[in-house]
From TrEMBL:
Species lineage: Eukaryota, Fungi, Dikarya, Basidiomycota, Agaricomycotina
Keywords: NADP, Oxidoreductase
GO molecular function terms listed in the Swiss-Prot or TrEMBL record: oxidoreductase activity, acting on NAD(P)H as acceptor; oxidoreductase activity, acting on the CH-OH group of donors, NAD or NADP as acceptor
Protein's name in the database: NADP-dependent oxidoreductase domain-containing protein
Family statement: Belongs to the aldo/keto reductase family.
Length: 308
């Protein structure tokens, strides 16, 4: 499968990112980063997501070597993470910590993120972003972005910024839409693309699936018939995110599921009708259910909605 068959989105800095990435931060994917990463790459998923805290940046580079895919054909994201027990990275040590990421990977990743606003010591978030900007200017980083940032965190780093973050990587699915509304609006104003994780929370982690379950199953059946490819409710969630210009990061350590994700990644855009996309969003907005609290529930009010 050629990389050209997978749709990409254009980031603020003019670079392109494939719409679906395979992450090695969760589940079996994290403990089998080389083997599963190799399967992902060989299947045609040429977009890998890692982070310092996953302890497999080295394995991410090894997976690319093992798959025999040229490095320049793979889009790689990594992140500057807080130290164990959520200890922030002192500003004076951040440059060296970024370099350690690059050394473990064996190359400069295409995208490098501040893993969450608490990676910086209190009051140092803007200075940490300024360091990312300087590293970009020096050619030590390429695209730069953030993760788990609330509107107030984005406001801090955007004030006088030389570069805007190209993405904010957050838990994103229909059951967090109401909570995220102010954040998504802020990002849209600035052209910051949402990169999703935890996208399968409604189908895999919500105790019953909630009101979306029959809707996703109905749409999955329709799209399976149209495409001749068997898709389930989880696949519909990934297509729903893509239909909104969201870059999806998902994970699997299961070879068959990884190959299924690669097939999904290569399907043409526009598989869901605008009415289906809107129906999923509208029903999703009636429930609040988050799996990863990270820091998005601190000083960022939760919606007054039923939460199962
Ligand atoms: N920036 C951050 O703070 C942050 C936080 C969390 C995650 N991430 C990134 O995003 C990636 C994906 O996160 P996520 O795991 O939350 O994504 P997700 O797409 O919501 O879930 C993927 C998980 O679902 C399981 N799965 C998929 N289909 C399944 C099925 N039909 N039945 C049962 N299990 C199924 C996979 O397990 P199997 O291995 O069994 O297939 C995998 O562990 C991570 O690896 C990481 O790279 C970033």
């Amino acid at each position: 499968m050629s990389p050209a068959t997978v749709q990409s989105f254009t980031l603020l800095d003019g670079t392109a990112i494939p719409w679906l990435g395979w992450g090695n931060g969760t589940g079996a994917a994290s403990t089998t980063a080389v083997e599963s990463g190799k399967i992902a790459l060989e299947s045609g998923i040429l977009h890998l997501d890692t982070a310092q805290i996953y302890h497999n940046e080295k394995e991410t580079g090894e997976a690319i070597t093992a798959a025999g895919v040229p490095r320049e054909e793979v889009y790689v994201t990594s992140k500057l993470s807080a130290r164990p027990n959520q200890i922030p990275v002192p500003l004076a040590e951040a440059r060296a910590s970024v370099q350690e990421s690059l050394d473990r990977l064996g190359f400069v990743p295409d995208l490098y993120l501040i893993h969450n606003p608490y990676v910086a010591e209190p009051g140092h978030l803007k200075a940490l972003w300024a360091l990312f900007e300087a590293l970009k200017d020096e050619g030590k980083l390429k695209s730069i972005g953030v993760s788990n940032f609330r509107p107030q965190d984005l406001a801090v780093i955007l004030d006088g910024a030389k570069y805007k973050p190209v993405v904010n990587q957050i838990e994103y699915h229909p059951y967090v839409l109401t909570h995220l509304a102010p954040l998504l609006e802020f990002q849209q104003q600035h052209g910051i693309i949402t990169q999703s994780y935890g996208t399968l929370t409604p189908t895999l982690r919500h105790p019953t699936g909630g009101p979306l379950k029959p809707i996703l199953e109905r749409i999955a059946a329709r799209v399976s018939t149209t495409t001749g490819t068997s898709l389930d409710a989880s696949a519909v969630l990934l297509l729903w995110a893509r239909a909104q210009g969201v870059v999806v990061v998902t994970a699997s350590g299961n070879a068959d599921r990884i190959k299924g994700l690669a097939k999904l990644a290569a399907l043409p855009a526009g598989l869901l009708t605008p009415e289906e996309v809107e129906e999923i969003s509208a029903v999703g907005k009636t429930v609040h259910f988050r799996f990863y609290t990270e820091h998005l529930e601190n000083e960022f009010p939760l919606p007054d909605l039923p939460s199962q």
